[in-house]
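> run fold Kinesin motor domain-containing protein
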Amino acid sequence: AARRRREGARVLAVQPAQVVLYLPGQGVKGFAFARVFDGRAEQGEVYAGCARGPVLAALNGLNACLLCYGQTGSGKTHTVFGPPGVLDQAALAAGGGGLPPGAGVALRACREVLEAVRRGEEPGAAVRVEASAQYVELYQGRLTCLATGREAQLRDAGGGRFVCRGAAETPLASLGGAVALLQRGETWKHYAATAMNHRSSRAHTVFLVTITQTHRRLGAMLRSELHIVDLAGCEQIKKSKVAGQARREAVGINSSLMVLGRVVRALLADRPHVPYYESKLTLLLKGAFGGSSRTAVVVTGSLADEHGDETGHAVRFGARCARVTNRAGAAEVTSVAAAAAAVDQALRRTAAALRGLEARGKGHLPACRKLRERRRLLLERRKALPAAAALSTVDDR
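> ok
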């Protein structure tokens, strides 16, 4: 047993911006990240270091995503939602606008968004901010609204965007309301005890916050989405020792995470086909990988040698994600009309460049593929501005 442990991957060092692993056949290898936290980090530190960026991006009008990935029992749900019992503590503290130290990034994000809502209600505020949330679970290919327990459907909304039809959209007006929504969700979530985690999440969970900002005088409107995703834990069945229904759940979880891994590898290789449609999970996260979202990935892992292979896998996944380039553009315009005009101008330039290359018989070149992808993303952004649809006509052939 000792020899087998020595032959497996293991964590050698955890540094502020690097994790050093021993990998069989490769030797010692360092993996660089924007920030690395050890087991002593407080929840507030984790939020400030990796989650606040996407939240601020969403408040600045960009679509954003925070995704948590790792082995079962490594701290994903703790990071996103906090430890068991923290929501009850938060319910008691919410009246005063406070949060318990153990509150996860979801509640901390809600508090930051609600602060923006409050500022928009102050006398003389130029912009009104409204927020709402959907809370869904993807379990064995079935999408469920965690606010109601009812089944929801994943639907193509066009422009590469997929939405959860049938999932309740709950207005976020107070911190207490956000806590109550997360508490209701706990009653519908799927958990199971395994040899590796006595309370293992058996489904992928998505907390989606929609932020709408309206300029009171100009009639401006800006809409953005923040996805906070707690992925079900990847696990080795021989280690988790699950059987029956729990084994079937583990197979389904591992399968959807494998597709997610293939999507990331396809994006890095710039392949013409990215297998989003092989899993509902990857369709749900389509915009977060290779789309127009400002995405941050939090990877959790165990320092124990016995879990070295799983931690090594998670760290390598995180390193690959860091190399995926999304195309998020800053929302610098202050009105729907200005936003539409800016996007329309970019569409015209892109269409003209594409027509020029195709006319010279160069439609097969990588440059054409990139222009087509740019056009698709611009069209996606244009469709997000319905109020300005009649302002201009765009040749987006």
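The first strand starts at residue 10 and ends at 15.
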